[in-house]
Structure formats: C-alpha cells, structure tokens
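The authors assume throughout that readers already know how a fold can be written as discrete tokens. A single example would do more here than another paragraph of explanation. An entry of this sort, consisting of the sequence and the corresponding backbone structure tokens, reads as follows:
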Amino acid sequence: MKLIIGIMVILISTVCTAKEINVGATGISFIAPAGFLPLDQELIDAKWPQKRAPKWVVGNDSASTTIAYDLKPNDISSAPLDDLMNYFKTTFDRVIPGIEWKKREIVELSGKKWIYLEMTSNAIDTDIYNIMLLTSYGKEMLVFNFNSTKEDFKKYEVALRKSVSTIQLPPKTNKPLNSDAARVAH
C-alpha cells in the first residue's frame, strides 16, 4: 500500500511541476519534464561551441539532459522526408563518433509528418543519447533535440518520451500571407 501511495505522489508531483514551453512567438509548444528550466546563453554557447547552437534550450539542473529546439533557415517543405532522413543518416554516420542507430523513421505528430532519429554516440567525456525530430514549418526547418548522457537517460527516458508526445503545432489558418494580401488588394 505504501508503494502505491508513493508512486501516486511521484506521478502527481511530476504532472504538477511539468511546464509548457513555447517556441518563441510561433504558437509551437511542448511540455518540458518537471524541473527543466531555460539554459542561459552562456551555458548554451559552452555546450554548443560551434556557431550552430540552438536558439532555445531547457534542461535539468546540471544541463546533462536537455531539450534544444529551433527554427533553422532551411526550407525542407518540398523535400521527400525519406530522402532527407537518409541524408541525415549518411551525414551523421560520417561526422558523429561512435554513432549507433536505435531508430530512424517517419512519424506523425500534431497532425504533421516528422523525421524521427534516435541514436547514441560518443562525446569527449561521456556517451550521449539523442532523440531528434525534424519537420518543415513554413519555409523553415523545425528541430527538436532531446539530448542526455547515457547515464542520465535511464532517469529521464519516460519524461523525455512523454515530452516528445506533447509537441503541438498551431492549427493551420487560411489567411493569406501579408505579401499575398497586398497583391490582391492592388
């Protein structure tokens, strides 16, 4: 009985402390695991030293488990997702040390098709577990990267997978773009 009550308290506290995160002013949102907070820019720059750092990142206290998300200026809206997935596989196989693929597939999430890449790899000081999701968003590429040390992944796996399932895109609108509206008006 004590075990059941303990599990219920943990589940309720996790639900109560999970936080909805908005991706800028896009209307895109997801629920971050309990205790995940935005990383400051200094920590983002240290964790991603190349100039390709994500714009937004939330993570645990030590930043050993993070969710990075960004809109990249790559128009993939007309690219076949299978071809794009194979491109990422080939590129990652070449540039990521010790990559081991767990899963590569096209999934549907929030009414849209996404590339889903799940892998482990070797970093300088630890092994990493990644779950990446990519899709087009207008003329940009929407990227989510659920990243954890392999050691921490055991602790956060359920919460990270739950967070993946909470990604929400805004409903499509039939409003014309401003430039289209201006052309129609003249």
The beta strands are 19-22, 29-32, 37-38, 56-59, 65-72, 100-109, 112-122, 127-137, 140-149. The longest helix spans residues 2-17. The chain has one domain: 31-167.
